Amino acid sequence: MAGKSFDSLDGEIWFDGAFVPWQDAKVHLLTHALHYGSGVFEGVRAYAGRIFRLEEHTKRLFFSAKVLDLDIPFSEDEINAACEEVLAHNGLKDAYMRPLVWRGAEQMGLSARNASVHVAIAAWEWPSYFSPEQRLKGLKLGFSRWRRPSPDTAPVMAKATGMYMIHTLAKHEADRKGEDDALMLDWRGQVAEATGANIFLVRDGELHTPITDNCLDGITRHAVIELAEKRGWKVVQRPIWPTELPAFQECFLTGTAAEVTPVASIGPYDYTVGEITRTLMDDYDKLVRGSN
Predict the structure, then answer these.
(1) Are 219 and 56 contacting, i.e. CB atoms less than 8 angstroms apart?
(2) Domain that holds residue 116
(3) Which residues are catalytically annotated?
(4) Which of 101, 80, 78, 86 minimizes the C-alpha distance to 27?
């Protein structure tokens, strides 16, 4: 798939309750979401034909939609069934899935409560977000100049399309600097997350991760916390300041796309791909493939 544009892939997309050829899944230029960011989405993965934690993803999709005042014209059960159907219809086993909800083109302007709400679900083969080489040696992260906003200035608890522009800017900046990704701080200056994944840091056998009032409450994050606690490792969810970063021995990212990916450095601070990181990588792989 390398080099192929995402608007010209093969397969069919579930679009408002019916399948349409991939290249025919289109919206109008004046779609409200394109102009004002009035959309929400999920990133979901399937392994060996089994969608990992689908119900949790769908619940979060509906939560995000409610935050953005979007009334999804399908039930959670209908969306879950549609995701399963998309996977089977396209003959996919290992795939990334993108449910998307957005406000249509009937009204143009900030107020568009009478505009229609649409839902689409696409799925395609997609390997790990980071390359095998990156995951083996660990990622190089820099510090983003863009910060996660305060919850009283933006709907930070929703997985909303418009919220990701600062993440795109941060990732572009990292790319230009030859870094794999960027660490984003929040409005207070505390550690928040990478551009598309939650962060864990390890010190003296304990895992530390930011509380989720400053970042997305990741579904993979929850899975990894469960795996760590099953191993008997203590997980501390708390505010983390950048000045603490030199004191940790290991660091890794978690996310549906990132899975569990080690971090080798954040700015001048170096980390090892240690026992806890390697074990959780293996445990997570077994979990998503149904062998844990």
Answers:
(1) yes
(2) 6-124
(3) 159
(4) 101
Q: Are residues 16 and 140 in the same domain?
A: no
Q: Which of 71, 97, 124 is the last residue of a domain?
A: 124
* Owner of token pair 């069919």: 12
- pLDDT on residue 129: 65
Regarding whether 174 and 36 lie in a shared domain, the answer is no
Distance between CA atoms of residues 235 and 231, nearest Å = 11
Residue 166 is assigned to a structural domain of this protein: yes
| Mean pLDDT calculated for residue range 2-9 | 82
Q: What CATH number has the domain bearing residue 274?
A: 3.20.10.10
Q: Judge whether 256 and 44 are in contact, CB under 8 Å.
A: yes
Residue 108: partners with Cβ closer than 8 Å, 6 or more residues away = 30, 32, 35
Question: If you write DSSP's letter for every residue of 40-99 in order, what string do you get?
Answer: EE--EEEETTEETTHHHHHHHHHHHHHHTT---SS-HHHHHHHHHHHHHHTT-SSEEEEE
In a domain, 11, yes or no: yes
Residue 120, amino acid = A
The model's pLDDT over 105-123, given as tens digits with 9 standing for 90+, comes to 999 999 999 999 999 999 9
Tokens of 160: 């909303």
Residue 176, pLDDT above cutoff 70: yes
- Domain total in the chain: 2
- Same-domain check for residues 137 and 232: yes
DSSP state of 182: E
What burial letters (b/e) apply to 164-181, b meaning 16+ CB within 10 Å?
bebbeebbebbeeeebbb
pTM passes above 0.85: yes
Assign 214 a pLDDT band (cuts: 50, 70, 90).
confident
